[in-house]
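Below is how a single chain appears once it has passed through the pipeline. First comes the sequence as given, then the structure the pipeline wrote out for it. We keep one example in the README because the format questions we get most often are answered faster by looking than by reading.
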Amino acid sequence: MKRDIHIERTYPHPPELVWRALTDPALIAEWLMPNDFRAQVGHRFTMRTDPAPGFDGIVNCEVLELSPPRRMRWSWKGGPIDTVVTFELEPAIVFARPATTLKVAQTAFEGLDAVLVSFVLGAGNRAVYGRHLPYVLDRIATGEKVENVRQACANERGRWWWISRAIAPVVGRRRKSA
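Resulting structure:
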């Protein structure tokens, strides 16, 4: 059993600004997770979030490819998943102004546990790329301080949160018996 996640969003900001949000560790911490990222091929880094059954809250990554400001690939390993995330930026125009289309692919979810996790991540990505990252981009563009993005968006416990809570016991049980 295999599955991939594909996301495509267009933001009303130039590629250089979107690239900055994707490669600045402090900004990544705001829209995604706290981390020790460095924009350098071969750099191994971790991201941290709340633990859940079958997942210690640590995502181990490595920068596999870096082509500023157009493409970046990371390995992404945590809990039952061992995947690759690719970020691709394409210049676009929105209302006659520079914009960026961001394509994100997280590939190689293999096995039942990984596929279940992919559904949680896929649903969570709606918040990450639909609310958190746009919030960060808008603040950078206006020169405002970027902080407490999760707090600003936190009042919305969406479907992804409920789905993650529903499947966490199943994934946790399967990992303990493996």
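The first strand starts at residue 2 and ends at 11.

See the next section for the split statistics.
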